């Protein structure tokens, strides 16, 4: 019942994904999980790089 209320799209309307890696029909479930984990790892690495740069610049300015 709740599914019928929340799902307003027509059966003929395609499901549109904002990013290709979120489309399980295109990349598969394992591909989707792989992409999400790779992006997560990339953001974590970028965060650590920014922290290291900030730490080094802070030492240089003292």
UniProtKB/TrEMBL annotation:
Transmembrane intervals: 32-53
Keyword Membrane: yes
Keywords: Membrane, Transmembrane, Transmembrane helix
Full protein name: Preprotein translocase subunit SecE
Organism per entry: Anaerobutyricum soehngenii
